[in-house]
Every structure is written in C-alpha cells, then in structure tokens.
Design goal:
The protein has about 210 residues and is α/β, with parallel strands linked by helices. It has helices spanning about 15-40, 70-75, 80-90, 90-105, 110-115, 140-145, 160-165, 195-210, and strands spanning about 50-55, 120-125, 175-180, 185. The chain has a single domain, classed as Rossmann fold. Helix 1 runs parallel beside helix 3 (about 80-90).
C-alpha cells in the first residue's frame, strides 16, 4: 500500500498494480486445477476462492494508462494507484470468467458447475489501513501514530475471510463483496460491470500468456 513511487516490479508494473492485481491473478490462475481437484475432499464438495479487497475500492475507477510507469501514472496519487488495484480485486466477473475459460480446456461441465457455486470477493477493511499491521509502513510517522489510535488488532482481519472460506451459509454468496465483520456489502457500481470485467480479463490474460 502506497509504496514509494519509484518502486516498480521486475516486469515494470506499478508496484501496487503488479502485486495486488497481476500477481494475484496469475497465482490464482496457476492454482485453479488444484483447487478444482480439492473439491473432491472438501466437506461440502466445493472450492472457495477469497480475494482480499479493501474499502479503498470505493475510491477510484480503473486508470488504464497507469499500470506501468509513465506520465499518466505519475499524475495519479499513490492512494489512487492503490485504490484502483483494490477495485480490481472486487470484480467478481473476472474470477467468474476464469472459471468459464477453463470450461474449454481441462474441466467437464459437472466440474464447472460444482466449482462455480462459490466465489467470495472479500473486503477485509473498513477503510485503508483499518488493521494495525505493517501495511501502513509507508505512511508518514504522524499519520501512523494517529491511525494507530483507531485501528483494529490484526487478528480481526482474518474474521471475514474465515467466515467466507469455511461457513456453510457463505455458499450462497458467490460473487459478493463482503465487509467487516462477516457481512455482505456492496462495492461501487463499477465492481459489477460485466463490460469492465471483460476488458480487464482480456488485459490480464494477455499479460500472463507467456509466463
């Protein structure tokens, strides 16, 4: 979250976009076959993917020309760069499209139906830095001191993820945006835009195709 502006990934992405978006997408993409196989031994017969978003998702749209370094990226605040990465993490249509993509490759129709029953898109913080963790290390010391007065213990951050990943009732919350603590909320409207999800899917698949 809001690292120094000069930090980029080895592939040249804005560090927040590369870490929170490209990295998460590619990692999940690699894990899908194992996750689908895992449903066979799951107590409820399902596989669950919980993506950690943030209340920062409410604070920005996607700025398409800012993913790599350049004039457009430099014009945006570090907060905005963080927020757009968290909006991407709230887009349920991206993960639903990953499941559809596999239908033509390694999965049977039965596997697709069983797997796609649950996909939880999860927000674990009420505001940016709502938990007392090292996520705030790049904030000015005064800002950290003030925020520490109102932050929740880091252990609280696991409550909603554990609920989404383990409780029987969350089977019904496929594609939902969850908020602290263990509740269904709603992201900004762009988070449910299928056209935006389609565009981001095409972009992300292009970025990982040679990896």
């Amino acid at each position: 979250m809001i690292p120094p502006r000069n930090l980029l990934t080895e592939d040249g992405y804005d560090l927040q976009w590369g870490t929170n978006v490209i990295g998460h997408f590619f990692f999940t993409h690699l894990l899908l076959p194992a996750l689908i196989a895992g449903k066979e031994t799951s107590p409820d017969g399902h596989t669950r993917i919980v993506t950690t978003s943030s209340m920062a998702a409410y604070m920005s749209v996607i700025h398409w020309d800012s993913f790599r370094d350049g004039p457009a990226r430099k014009k945006l605040s570090l907060d905005t760069l963080y927020a757009q990465s968290k909006l991407r993490n709230s887009l349920s249509s991206i993960m639903n499209r990953q499941i559809s993509y596999l239908q033509d490759s390694l999965l049977s129709d039965t596997q697709i139906r069983a797997f796609s029953r649950l996909l939880a898109i999860l927000s674990t913080s009420g505001i940016t830095g709502n938990l007392k963790t090292e996520l705030n290390r790049h904030l000015p010391s005064i800002a950290r001191a003030i925020m520490n007065l109102v932050l929740y213990p880091a252990s609280n951050g696991a409550l909603t993820q554990l609920w989404a990943g383990t409780m029987p009732e969350t089977i019904e919350y496929n594609g939902q945006f969850l908020i602290p603590w263990a509740r269904v909320g709603r992201c900004r409207e762009e988070g449910y835009d299928p056209a935006l999800g389609e565009k981001l899917w095409d972009y992300l698949m292009e970025e990982i195709k040679d990896k």
